[in-house]
Design a protein that fits this description.
five-stranded parallel beta sheet, binds flavin-adenine dinucleotide, alpha/beta, Rossmann fold, globular, seven-stranded mixed beta sheet, binds uridine-5'-diphosphate
Length: 379
């Protein structure tokens, strides 16, 4: 079998590139996907009770990129949705990112007012600051607040989720959820936020429905390696796996999702509730809040962090740390040797903690390179 482009993986990265290459360059694309469905970790489906669930953890789409939003809007309408998360501290469900509303929930009024003034002076109105930065303050009262947030919101959650302390990870990880000097309880403040109106899978189906795209499900690249001839390949699986772990395995973190169906309209007040301090799990998710589905029953999923073992569970998270990046760089050097024959992209191919919009932006940028390459190759 011979194709123009072989794409390994049908998540946001693979689907975007397949769609662009088929529709814009008129090339034949074969997508091989080892799972029994398209969509990667953003896949959603109806469970046996008719509840639309996110099989691999809640996925909220948010972006500041008009390019990404406009691109995906070709394949879906949107349900406007602003995600909210609560975290359980001393028995109270307080807003995260930790904000001025969280302050009033955990401290007596006078102390909360004092801390609010300090935060306004330190960061400024409506500003965000990473917790690890706030802990560097020389102001004793602010340091008290920083330590309180670090101890009650970040420390144990991070140890459970990553198996590492916050300072053992790249600071970009905890700064995803900064201290926010505002009363805005939304998890994200991006310009565009929402969910595909008919679900992610429906959107992926439209992206991949081009007549020049064929999708082979339940097919691991390992099974077809050497059997399918191609001009070019895009690999969106783990880059270390592609190179047969020649420099050693890159570390990932995995999760286990425990689904429970409940005979009540809602289980919790918002889509995600975090449990940093109690239990071995980190989060309870209820996707009905995200999808807006109206039912008198619900399904929740409880998120249990796990050690990743290749072939046993899924590599959900690359682990952002300098030593892992150095190891990745060795694989990136190998990738360079393959020139324009094989490209790597996506959360696993680039070993980067991408959100969905970042995966799409990366794919669209790679597509520009590919399109320019095609022009250069023309006789
Ligand atoms: P993936 O979605 O991982 O797709 C890769 C695909 O390649 C998979 O389908 C895999 O089966 C396939 N594959 C791998 N190896 C092979 C092989 N050897 N052969 C064949 N196929 C292979 N982002 C947000 O913006 N908002 C959120 O709320 C959000 N929540 C998340 C929650 C969780 C629990 C996780 C894990 C991620 C979340 N993300 C979220 C991130 C989002 O899932 C990623 O940005 C996105 O999935 C990246 O797309 P991708 O195509 O690069 O990778
Ligand atoms: N985090 C935390 N407590 C929280 C929320 C987040 O410690 O209540 C930290 C934790 O290290 C987490 C990181 O911030 O892994 C990023 O959180 P985010 O919600 O972005 O994680 P994701 O949704 O990608 O799992």
């Amino acid at each position: 079998m011979k194709v123009d482009w072989l794409i390994v993986g049908s998540g946001f990265t693979g689907a975007t590139l397949a769609e662009r290459i088929a529709s814009q360059l008129g090339k034949k694309v074969l997508v091989v996907e080892k799972r029994g469905h398209i969509g990667g970790n953003s896949y959603d489906s109806y469970d046996e009770h008719g509840v639309l669930i996110h099989n691999y953890g809640s996925h909220t789409f948010h972006t500041n990129s008009a390019m990404v939003w406009d691109y995906l809007s070709k394949f879906t309408e949107w349900r406007v949705y602003f995600h909210q998360v609560r975290t359980v501290v001393d028995g109270k469900k307080i807003p995260v990112p930790f904000n001025l509303n969280s302050l009033t929930e955990v401290f007596p009024p006078k102390l909360a007012e004092k801390m609010e003034t300090l935060l306004l002076q330190h960061f400024g109105f409506a500003k965000k600051g990473p917790i690890l930065k706030l802990r560097e303050t020389s102001d004793a009262e602010l340091r008290f607040l920083a330590d309180y947030i670090y101890d009650h919101v970040f420390y144990r959650y991070t140890v459970k989720h990553w198996g590492l302390k916050p300072e053992e990870l790249d600071p970009s990880v905890t700064s995803r959820v900064p201290v926010f000097v505002s009363r805005d309880n939304r998890y994200f403040q991006d310009k565009y936020q929402g969910l595909p109106k008919a679900g992610y899978t429906a959107m992926f189906n439209r992206m991949l429905s081009h007549p020049d795209i064929k999708v082979l499900l339940n097919t691991d690249y390992k099974e077809v390696e050497g059997e399918i001839r191609y001009d070019h390949m895009i690999f969106t699986g783990p880059i270390d796996e592609y190179f047969h772990y020649i420099y050693g395995a890159l570390p990932y973190r995995s999760l286990r999702f425990e689904f429970q169906h409940l005979h009540q309209e809602y289980y919790q007040e918002v889509g995600t509730v975090n449990y940093p301090n109690d239990y071995a799990f980190t989060r309870i998710l209820e996707q009905k809040h995200l999808t807006g589905q109206k039912l008198d029953h619900t399904t929740i999923s409880i998120v249990h962090p796990e050690k990743y073992t290749a072939g046993v569970n899924e590599p959900y998270y690359p682990i952002p740390r300098a030593d892992n990046r150095n190891l990745y760089n060795q694989y990136a050097e190998e990738a360079k040797q393959l020139g324009n024959k094989v490209f790597f992209a996506g959360r696993l191919g680039d070993y980067k903690y991408y959100n969905m919009d970042q995966a799409v932006a990366r794919a669209l940028t790679l597509f520009q390179h590919i399109a320019a390459m095609g022009e250069a190759e023309k006789p």
